[in-house]
Write a structure and sequence with these properties.
Helices cover about 45% and strands about 20% of the residues. The chain is α/β, with parallel strands linked by helices and about 700 residues long. Strands 1, 2, 3, 4, 5 and 6 form a 6-stranded mixed sheet that branches. Helix 15 packs across helix 16 (about 410-420) and helix 18 (about 455-470) runs parallel beside helix 19. The radius of gyration is 31 Å and the shape is globular. The chain binds adenosine-5'-triphosphate (ATP). Adenosine-5'-triphosphate binds next to helix 5 and helix 7.
Length: about 700
Amino acid sequence: MIFLIELKLWRTSMSQGTEFLTLINEKLKHKIQEVNHALLEGQKEIESMHTYYWDNYTEMDQYGYENFDNQQALFQQVNANQEQFIYRQRLEKMIDSPFFGRVDFCYEGEEEPEQFYIGIGNFSEKTGHVPLIYDWRAPVSGLFYDYDKGAACYTAPAGVLHGEITSKWQYKIRRGKMVYEFESDVKIDDDILKAELGSNGDVQLKNIVRTIQKEQNAIIRNTKDKIMVIQGAAGSGKTSVALHRIAYLLYHDREHLKSSNILVLSPNSVFSDYISHILPELGEENIQEMSFDLYAYKELKSFVYDCEDRYHQIERELAFADKKQIKRMRWKQSKEFLDEAEAFLLELEDELMNFRTVEYKGFEKTEQEILNLFYFKFQDIPLLSRMEAVLEYFIDEYETLKDCTLPEEERDMLYGKFMKMYETKDLYVLYSRFLKRTGLKALPHCSYEKRLLPYEDVYPMLYFKYRLFSVTQQKTIKHLVIDEMQDYSYLQYIILKELFHCPMTILGDKAQTMEAEVQDVLEFLPEIYGKQIRVIYMNKSYRNTVEIASYANEITDVQGVELFERHGKPVEEKTFSTLTEMLEEALKNLKLQENEYETAAVITTTEEEAVFAYQYLKEKFPQTFYIDKDSSVFQKGLTVTTFYLAKGLEFDQVFGISEKRNTPLLKQAGYICATRALHELYMYQLEEESHDKRA
Ligand SMILES: Nc1ncnc2c1ncn2[C@@H]1O[C@H](COP(=O)(O)OP(=O)(O)OP(=O)(O)O)[C@@H](O)[C@H]1O
């Protein structure tokens, strides 16, 4: 940050910012003392409630009223304490850096501007008092991100408020001390941003509240559109924006939206760890995250013993790019394939059924009656759940007639009878039959323990499940975030639409498709979600230096990306005859030893190369970590991984390792790998004639 100060910025020796900081520090300390006192009192209260209960519980009224009242009071006190505890945590965070910006805004018709200090959270001396610091998500804080000096407006609950920004300030405060402050009306934002991006003090993704850009702010604060789709260049801040958007939505709808109501579909657990600290840093609790693949495997567990995972499929593709196989795999995720599936499912309505008369203790439903119930009364229920509705109807009539309740064993016996009217309810068998009928290879006929479902069949089979059995909709999820949208197929979006009816933020980059062919989900998302969708493009890339971004864009001929002007070392390309030589060269260039950088990565194409590189490097550099599909932590040091697991992550230095073959998939891999580098990129290739890669 030193060079920032060296820039001839407007700097005041003892400005209002520093004075205000002294005042705020005092007030924050005082507030923390107050909260500590309240916490102590609350704790005493809880203890005395416990003592009272144990002393008196034998004498409490027999109906439990007093006991209930006691429990309620205890519950309330515990909650109050919990709230105070969270509040104290926020205050403690604020004491380190209470504010980072200030806008002086003169409302239309007023003479004097008002000063609004902006920080990570609201702070006022007493509840109901005018805040001394405004949360970055408060309506007035929008002025800070959206305008320079001059005419401006913001939307408050009372309506749009117009006026003029007379001055705007930026501050950096660490450990309660002012590091720098300056007036930022002279387009200084880029310098701060450059300093932020050029720094390498953070290991995980950092929060960007101090430097949110105008176009990013518009996405973060958008509450109008139900489905927001963000197509953004590599490093344009999609993930950061999505997380800040979540923090914003939580702040604005506290009553209805809790962090447990938000779900992120993330590519893998390492990525989840990599982003996990952002929301707590922004004063919010963490949200749920899940990999859609894991969810799908769980959903199919009762029909298949195991499923192949996506990464195996990529490895297979890398090893022997059988074009026919790849084409078939894609087709299985397409709209045309679903149309075929629909035709088959229609045929099943007849084909699967074998209606019979059911008689139970003198009560009878004829074959025709059952058929009528099945095809008319309950026609809207999915086929394989429908007979259960007929059964319930049968039991209901019987119980009403005989004025009794059937015991469990009798119900089970009847259940068996009714289910026998299906030829089979085994999804594996039905899906396999469908494959055969469409001219594809059926799944192997084997016992449950031997059923291993290829990845290409996971989602088609899940689709079958949801079409044939009733779906339980995800009601607790009120906002869904889908990161890396380009890695989800048409079919997956159809299933997601079935499962989630809530607002969504969908983000990704078609240029980072993990396949030979670029997938642009925007070609089909509007058709799936209709008018609810709003598409936003983010074309400015922030992560890489100009040298790295230009190099990466050339690999796959990505056009139209605006690069943030930050320069660094040129990309180093070299060819080697063995992997070992490459790794030695990487070690030579590694700057973690000198503490210049915090993170570096050796990114390979295949798992085999990654395993070899890891074994080799960990002997020479102890702080080497391996990320495989089961890893769940992102850490400081040298990471070794494959390109497909490095998605979404970033490192100060990247060493890309690949063969010289130039297939479309390898180009994609190269692009993903190169765009992971913040400051330095080394791209190493194996000579073509090199047979023994390692020695
Ligand atoms: N407004 C900003 N201020 C400071 N840093 C920013 C800003 N926007 C983005 N960045 C930085 O740019 C880098 C890339 O951000 P992020 O990972 O969110 O991008 P992305 O679009 O999700 O990238 P990718 O698709 O390549 O994984 C991060 O280091 C992030 O902190």
